[in-house]
């Protein structure tokens, strides 16, 4: 089915040289604050659900370490992808393609934040949590950004693991050992990531084609992507109910997961049947709300 050659999906052009003075907002943009907020929230959820305990000040420091790690990885990602970011409408106004931040400055910023995050996690929590945080940064930067993103249409499937680590990091930061519950939190985010990004990719396939990124719609086609979205939505629905059926969560979470899962599935079915751009956009936006409300349900429960 995937008979399109991947040889053309490679780095395409050099990054521009900085010609304008960067602002504080430009460096905040490098951190990918939208992604960071979800990373910190899911990490906080893992921390609060864990049976272990940590002083409130140390909890704050550990969450700050997760935020710094997320921001550092995001900055390195923007440094490496500055060539393709300049080709896509969604990303061409980022500070590096616009020439407001020099690529080398962005790289240094990202590396420093990443190192600080691991050091802070070591001091505030434990070596296991720091090691897991370091591995998540490595996974996002090297495995996803450098290796997978430009080489395989399943870049999001494998690379999505990077965004699934935060609740596990929060969990072990309290001194708790990895049990089934944090792995379920990992699995929920891991299964959530592909339909979330593929819904966006269906509407941005021209952008990805222009940047030579082998996203699933460009390689396998729209219909196969819509089918994969539906399959992952179904798997996500099943796995999201497991914390309730394994008695890790109570009725409040069970009802929340069921209702959110049905809504997610309904949108996925509409996309599979019709493939309308409006439905893809709805699923992309709803998926963000879905993840937030699902993890909020765990906290409320």
UniProtKB/TrEMBL annotation:
<protein>
    <recommendedName>
        <fullName>Protoheme IX farnesyltransferase</fullName>
        <ecNumber>2.5.1.141</ecNumber>
    </recommendedName>
</protein>
<comment type="similarity">
    <text>Belongs to the UbiA prenyltransferase family. Protoheme IX farnesyltransferase subfamily.</text>
</comment>
<dbReference type="GO" id="GO:0005886">
    <property type="term" value="C:plasma membrane"/>
</dbReference>
<keyword id="KW-1003">Cell membrane</keyword>
<feature type="transmembrane region" description="Helical">
    <location>
        <begin position="229"/>
        <end position="246"/>
    </location>
</feature>
<dbReference type="InterPro" id="IPR030470">
    <property type="entry name" value="UbiA_prenylTrfase_CS"/>
</dbReference>
<feature type="transmembrane region" description="Helical">
    <location>
        <begin position="127"/>
        <end position="147"/>
    </location>
</feature>
<dbReference type="InterPro" id="IPR044878">
    <property type="entry name" value="UbiA_sf"/>
</dbReference>
<keyword id="KW-0808">Transferase</keyword>
<feature type="transmembrane region" description="Helical">
    <location>
        <begin position="60"/>
        <end position="80"/>
    </location>
</feature>
<keyword id="KW-1133">Transmembrane helix</keyword>
<feature type="transmembrane region" description="Helical">
    <location>
        <begin position="252"/>
        <end position="271"/>
    </location>
</feature>
<dbReference type="GO" id="GO:0048034">
    <property type="term" value="P:heme O biosynthetic process"/>
</dbReference>
<feature type="transmembrane region" description="Helical">
    <location>
        <begin position="283"/>
        <end position="300"/>
    </location>
</feature>
<feature type="transmembrane region" description="Helical">
    <location>
        <begin position="183"/>
        <end position="202"/>
    </location>
</feature>
<feature type="transmembrane region" description="Helical">
    <location>
        <begin position="101"/>
        <end position="121"/>
    </location>
</feature>
<keyword id="KW-0350">Heme biosynthesis</keyword>
<dbReference type="Pfam" id="PF01040">
    <property type="entry name" value="UbiA"/>
</dbReference>
<feature type="transmembrane region" description="Helical">
    <location>
        <begin position="35"/>
        <end position="54"/>
    </location>
</feature>
<dbReference type="InterPro" id="IPR006369">
    <property type="entry name" value="Protohaem_IX_farnesylTrfase"/>
</dbReference>
<comment type="pathway">
    <text>Porphyrin-containing compound metabolism; heme O biosynthesis; heme O from protoheme: step 1/1.</text>
</comment>
<keyword id="KW-0472">Membrane</keyword>
<comment type="function">
    <text>Converts heme B (protoheme IX) to heme O by substitution of the vinyl group on carbon 2 of heme B porphyrin ring with a hydroxyethyl farnesyl side group.</text>
</comment>
<dbReference type="GO" id="GO:0008495">
    <property type="term" value="F:protoheme IX farnesyltransferase activity"/>
</dbReference>
<feature type="transmembrane region" description="Helical">
    <location>
        <begin position="154"/>
        <end position="171"/>
    </location>
</feature>
<keyword id="KW-0812">Transmembrane</keyword>
<dbReference type="InterPro" id="IPR000537">
    <property type="entry name" value="UbiA_prenyltransferase"/>
</dbReference>
């Amino acid at each position: 089915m995937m008979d399109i050659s991947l040889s053309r999906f490679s780095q395409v052009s050099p990054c521009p040289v900085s010609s304008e003075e960067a602002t504080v907002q430009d460096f905040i943009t490098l951190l990918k604050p939208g992604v960071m907020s979800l990373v910190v929230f899911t990490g906080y959820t893992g921390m609060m659900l864990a049976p272990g305990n940590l002083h409130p000040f140390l909890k704050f420091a550990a969450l700050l370490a997760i935020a710094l790690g997320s921001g550092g990885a995001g900055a390195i990602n923007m440094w490496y992808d500055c060539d393709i970011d300049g080709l896509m409408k969604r990303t061409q106004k980022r500070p590096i393609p616009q020439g407001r931040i020099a690529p080398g400055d962005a790289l240094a910023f990202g590396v420093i934040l990443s190192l600080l995050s691991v050091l802070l996690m070591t001091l505030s929590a434990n070596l296991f949590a720091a090691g897991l945080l370091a591995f998540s940064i490595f996974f996002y930067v090297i495995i996803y950004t450098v290796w997978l993103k430009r080489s395989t249409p399943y870049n999001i499937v494998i690379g999505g693991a990077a965004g699934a680590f935060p609740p596990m990091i929060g969990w072990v930061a309290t001194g708790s050992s990895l049990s089934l519950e944090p792995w379920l939190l990992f699995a929920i985010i891991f299964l959530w990531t592909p339909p979330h990004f593929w819904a966006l990719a269906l509407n941005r396939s021209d952008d990805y084609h222009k940047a030579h990124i082998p996203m699933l719609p460009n390689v396998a086609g729209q219909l196969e992507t819509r089918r994969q979205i539906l399959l992952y939505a179904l798997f996500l629905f099943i796995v999201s109910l497991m914390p309730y059926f394994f008695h890790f969560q109570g009725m409040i979470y069970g009802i929340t997961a069921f209702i959110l899962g049905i809504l997610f599935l309904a949108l996925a079915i509409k996309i599979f049947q019709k493939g309308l751009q409006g439905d893809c956009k709805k699923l992309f936006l709803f998926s963000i709300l879905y993840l937030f409300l699902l993890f909020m349900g765990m906290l409320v429960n």
